[in-house]
Structure formats: structure tokens, C-alpha cells
Write a structure and sequence with these properties.
Keywords: Electron transport, Membrane, Mitochondrion, Mitochondrion inner membrane, NAD, Respiratory chain, Translocase, Transmembrane, Transmembrane helix, Transport, Ubiquinone. The protein has about 240 residues and is mostly helical. The chain has one domain. Helix 2 runs antiparallel to helix 7. It starts with a helix and ends with a helix. About 40% of the residues are buried.
């Protein structure tokens, strides 16, 4: 709410920092070495991105507006986990439980999206580069994954390209896409958590009713944006 309602870059930055500090305990909900390592990676990456955003704000005071907008967009792209600044997101996601992963891929993207819309140059060449590379990297790198967490993460990187495309048209379009994506992602995340599937080769071995298995595959098709499923609707809108 602080980020959403603030006309000031500094207050929005404070909101970003509060958000990072609030998310770290959720990251550490599973106690093992992997989550400790991923939480440190997450913290350092977010801190670096925040510093870049503040530097962008200072450049606005001293130098030209265009350069500062580009620096702010650079910092926020790192926070979003958009390609080509996505490698931290994949390593963090691999060691998370499913519910914190869902939060990381949805709620944690709201603040940077609002700030990109408010404080950076939408429809600049750098913005187009981020959108295009997110769509390409998310789609192609997903083909090489066997881990379901990595697959969902690369799918999310691809969807970030769509969020930003929506934002380029209007804030409402971007938020509509984000809202439907969050709903569509929730179903496979809860099903994968309940069946405890971490790798693709475990999918045929799910010892549950056939009905549940078909629900999982339908929800994955929806996440891929195939008609007539719900995931196709926001892509159609854009």
C-alpha cells in the first residue's frame, strides 16, 4: 500500500525495503542449509537492486532525466526477476517450499510493477529489451528443466514479459493479467504441493485418483495460456 499510494520515489523505496524484510522470515520457514543460502542470495540481490534504484533517483537530481529512468528500470527489473537478470530467481526458487515460492512469484512482483509504471520509461528501447528477453528466455530455458520448481519459475519469467506488455498499454491491463496469472498459478502449486512432486518424471507416478491428475494437467495447460482455459483470457485481452 505504501508503494501503491506514494508519488515519491523515496517513500516507494522504503516500501520496497519493508517488503524485502517481511519476506525473509517466510523464506526461512523451512530450516535447512539450502534455504539459508537462498535467503542470503535473495537479500543481497534485493539490496543491490534497491541501491541501483536509489542511484537512479540521485541521477535524476544531478544529471538528465532519461538516464535516471533507465537506471531505475534496471534496478526494478532485477527485483522483478525479469530476464536477463533472472539467474538469482531460479537458484532461490529451487530450495523453497511451494507456498513461499507462490508468494515469491506473485505478491513480490507487485511493488516493482507499480514502480516501473510510475517512475520509469515504459516504451523505451531498454524496456522493450527486458520484455522481449523475458518472453524468449522464459520460454526456451523452460524446455531444458526437469525440476517442477524451475519450470514454474521460468514460466513466471515468461509471464513477466506479458505483465510488462500489459503495463505498456495501461495499468489496468497489466494488473488484470497479474490477477488472473496469480489465480491460475495457485491451482498447480497447491496440487504439486499436495502430491509432493519435485521432478517431471514423478508426474506419471502420482498415486492419486485420475480426476486429480487431469485437474493438474488442465491447470498446467491454463498456465500455458491455451484456449479455452482461463489463462488464455489475459493474453487475448493484451
Amino acid at each position: 500500500f505504501l508503494v501503491m499510494s506514494s508519488p515519491s520515489l523515496f517513500i516507494s523505496w522504503v516500501g520496497l525495503e519493508l517488503n524485502t524484510l517481511a519476506f525473509l522470515p517466510i523464506l526461512l520457514s523451512k530450516k535447512n542449509k539450502l534455504t539459508s543460502e537462498s535467503s542470503i542470495k535473495y537479500f543481497l540481490t534485493q539490496t543491490l537492486a534497491s541501491v541501483i534504484v536509489i542511484v537512479g533517483g540521485l541521477i535524476m537530481l544531478i544529471l538528465q532525466m532519461e538516464l535516471s529512468m533507465m537506471v531505475i528500470l534496471f534496478g526494478l527489473a532485477i527485483k522483478l526477476g525479469a530476464a536477463p537478470f533472472h539467474s538469482w530467481l531460479v537458484t532461490v526458487a529451487e530450495s523453497l517450499a511451494w507456498v513461499p515460492l507462490f508468494v515469491l512469484l506473485t505478491v513480490q512482483k507487485l511493488n516493482p510493477l507499480f514502480m516501473i509504471w510510475s517512475f520509469s520509461q515504459i516504451n523505451s528501447n531498454f524496456f522493450h529489451l527486458i520484455v522481449f528477453s523475458s518472453l524468449v528466455v522464459g520460454s526456451l530455458m523452460g524446455l531444458a528443466q526437469t525440476s517442477t520448481r524451475a519450470l514454474i519459475t521460468f514460466s513466471s519469467i515468461s509471464h513477466v514479459g506479458w505483465f510488462l506488455t500489459g503495463m505498456a498499454f495501461s495499468l489496468e491491463t497489466g494488473l488484470l493479467y497479474f490477477l488472473i496469472y496469480s489465480v491460475v498459478l495457485l491451482a498447480p502449486v497447491l496440487l504439486l504441493e499436495s502430491t509432493n512432486v519435485s521432478h517431471i518424471n514423478q508426474l506419471p507416478l502420482i498415486q492419486v485418483k485420475l480426476q486429480n491428475q487431469s485437474i493438474l494437467f488442465f491447470s498446467l495447460l491454463s498456465l500455458g495460456g491455451l484456449p479455452p482455459f482461463l489463462g488464455f483470457l489475459p493474453k487475448w485481452v493484451i
